[in-house]
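Issue 218. Parser rejects a valid record. Input:
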Amino acid sequence: MTSPRLSPGSADALLFDIGRVVIDIDFSKAIACWAGHAGCKPEAIISRFERGEAYRQHEVGKISDEAYFDSLRSALGIAISHDQFLEGWNAIFAGEMPDIAHLLPRAAKHMPLYAFSNTNRPHVEYFSKEYAGILGHFRELYLSSSIGLRKPDADAFDHVVQAIGVPAERIVFFDDLAENVEGARARGLTAVHVTTPADVGNALRALGI
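Output the parser choked on:
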């Protein structure tokens, strides 16, 4: 995927995905936790997990946590409780991404920062408390479970652009998933594909930050 052309003065706002851009994610921790409670090996359930329709419905707030965990219980073939599912579900957060703690406050001195994440209510409740410090640099968090829209859908990006109030082409968006980068570019945003922690810092330097 080609990198966008960035230069000082070419942006009025920065928009960040949260997972693997601001906060590191390790989904194997969830699988290990669930397997431990179920008394089986992680390998026995990892292949059964998929981000299917129930997953997407949960991310836009259309089904409850209980309904989603019921679907997981059936898909994974494990008989563990709601609280045990929740424990594993929130175990995925693995700390702040390298360098982000000094990059965000530096960037915030130059222009407003926003976040846009596909996420669900339990994760929002968890990371809002555990990572309040780093997330405090954002003027607003646009979360799929709150706005009822998710990346990479066009209407999701249009909603966020309108809410920010800056022309799409003046927003630089950072995301670790190629499909979201492509979705953002299709709606006119300048999007950076974050494949390593250095990608954020390099982009900010190109912007003169």
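Fixed in the parser; the record now loads. The mean pLDDT is 97.
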